[in-house]
Structures are given as C-alpha cells and as structure tokens.
Amino acid sequence: MAGAVAGGLFNAFAFAGAGYLFKIFDKNxxxxxxxxxxxxxxxxxxxxxxxxxEVTARRNRIAQxxxxxxxxxxxxxxxxxxxxxxxxxxxxxxxxxxxxxxxSNHYKPSLEMEEYMAIFGxxxxxxxxxxxxxxx
Length: 136
Known about the structure:
Distance between the termini: 109 Å
C-alpha cells in the first residue's frame, strides 16, 4: 500500500517536473503533450471503471454461485436424510411382524379345567342361542 502511494507521488512529481521543463523549452509542444496526457488519463479512467465493473460483476457471480452451491448441498443433505429414512422404513416393513403374545404361549390348562371350559361354553352357547331364538 505504501509502495503504491509512493509510486503515485513519484510519478506525479516526475510528470509535473517534466511538464515544467517542457513548457520552458517548447511552449507549443507542451500544449500538445498536455492534451495527449489528458486523453490518456481519460482513457485510463474509463478502462479502470470498466475493470472495476467487471471485477465486481465477477465477484458477485462467484458469491451467487457459492450461495447456490450451499443451497444445493443443503438439498443434497436433505435428500440423503430422506433416502436414509425411507431405507429404514422399508427395512422395518420387510421384516415379519413379531407375533402377538398370547396366553396359550405361556399357559396350558389342565385336562380338568378344559372340561369345565367346554361345559361352560356349551351352557353359554345354549343360553345365547335360546335368547336369539326368542328374539326372532
């Protein structure tokens, strides 16, 4: 930064000094040289403005693309998460359902209890059947 400032100051003094000498020795030549210098400065200014516009546009485009990339990465991560959840769901649905626990898996009634259950079932069935017959 300091080098750029020092270089700019040196160039300004050098041009001013050279212009002063040129003006002393050749009055008409100085006017032409000053005109050429002014045109060059205008061209340089226009070129710098164009350069800054291009650099700014390029930086903006890079920032926009980086933003789009970050969004795409979020979308990819969301998609990957969704696919992982689908895989887990499919994995669980493909497995057979566990058997529902039943009393018969843990208890077997004695023969005497089975006889009483059968008698009770017959009596209950008869009562229900008789009630249904009477209702009709």
